[in-house]
Design brief:
Blueprint lengths: L26 E2 L7 E3 L1 H4 L5 E7 L4 E3 L6 E8 L1 E7 L5 E6 L9 E4 L5 E7 L5 E8 L12 E3 L5 E5 L6 E7 L9 E7 L4 E2 L4 E2 L11 E9 L5 E7 L6 E7 L3 E4 L6 E3 L5 E9 L7 E2 L25
Antiparallel strand pairs: 1-20, 2-3, 3-10, 4-9, 5-8, 5-10, 6-7, 6-9, 8-11, 12-13, 13-14, 14-22, 15-21, 16-23, 17-20, 17-22, 18-19, 18-21
Length: 308
């Protein structure tokens, strides 16, 4: 049944499209230029595009696919200026690194031509992450660009004990975007994120929704690595991916917990897109019981790693 805020032509898929990607295609490593990118053709899904790159002072990058909505998030090295046709430029001050400040971000509505201009700190490059997705046609979507400043970011601590992590909610379901959902997660060294493991590859409201997702990783020490697992309960997929600074992982289906190696604080930014504006997901039923332990456990005192 179509909800009042969804047009009749919107297609809700009962299940994730079968993945046609071989497992090794899920892990994208940066080249010498430190650029990583994926799109629906590369990912084997329907909507989400993601890329990250750096800009020198005054260097310009065009926003791809201006007919789609976009989210631009500053990652490291300073900020950017966004030049918009017929509108005042947007200034995103940025941050030296993800561990030295909350993000500056911007939502760019579909149909907007934008140029992204590097405004880095001296001697650095401004690294940004950009997510894009086509429109559903639903109403209530922002028609003007929106700057999300650090003070607008909702900081949340989830879990307990060595499952505690910090989540920076940037563009969540209550944000007036269409498909795009954006958040950041900080995992202290030795801790787990996405635990108990969860998935979002079946349309079963309100329990679960189909969401395409990317993970883009940063580490306090760039020589670090961590482990991203992606698996199905029936064993038809079971991957352990050693992820490094600047890597990108495609989560097209399955459970996907993450662990930071001892001594190395980890970060990733999640971009998601689907047919429903929700973060609904379901836990692995074999492991969901661990939530019952948390009321008797203290949160990790190292968090938040980046204070609001």
């Amino acid at each position: 049944m179509t909800r009042p805020d969804e047009p009749r032509e919107l297609t809700i898929h009962p299940a994730k499209l079968p993945s046609r990607l071989p497992p090794e295609m899920l892990h994208i490593k940066p080249g010498a230029d430190r650029v990583v990118a994926t799109d629906p053709a590369r990912s084997g899904w329907r909507y989400l595009s993601f890329r990250s790159f750096g800009l020198a002072e005054g260097e310009v990058a065009l926003l791809d696919s201006p007919e789609q909505e976009a989210a631009i998030v500053t990652i490291s090295g300073g900020g950017v200026e966004i030049a918009l046709d017929g509108r005042a430029n947007l200034e995103l001050t940025g941050r030296p690194s993800v561990f030295e400040g909350l993000p500056w971000s911007a939502y760019i509505p579909a149909g907007t031509t934008a140029r992204i201009i590097g405004r880095p700190l001296p001697g650095q490059r401004s690294v940004v992450a950009i997510a894009q997705a086509p429109l559903t046609g639903r109403t209530g979507i922002a028609r003007e660009p929106i700057v999300v400043a650090p003070n607008d970011v909702q900081v949340e601590l989830r879990g307990a004990g060595n499952c505690t992590r910090q989540v920076n909610n940037i563009m969540m379901p209550d944000f007036p975007a269409d498909r795009l959902l954006i958040c950041e997660v900080f995992t202290p060294s030795g801790n787990w994120s996405g635990w108990p493991p969860h998935k979002h590859d079946v349309d079963d409201p309100p329990r679960e929704a189909v969401l395409e997702e990317t993970y883009f990783y940063q580490f306090r020490r760039p020589e670090a690595w961590a482990i991203q697992r992606i698996y199905h309960r029936d064993g038809s997929r079971d991957l352990l991916l050693p992820v490094h600074h600047g890597d990108l992982v495609i989560v097209d289906q399955g459970y996907h917990p993450f662990i930071a190696t001892p001594g190395y604080d980890a970060y990733f930014i999640n971009a998601l897109a689907g047919d429903r504006r929700t973060m609904a997901n379901t836990d692995d039923p074999d492991l969901a019981w661990v939530r019952t332990l948390w009321p008797d456990m203290e949160p990790d005192p190292r968090l938040p790693l980046v204070k609001p």
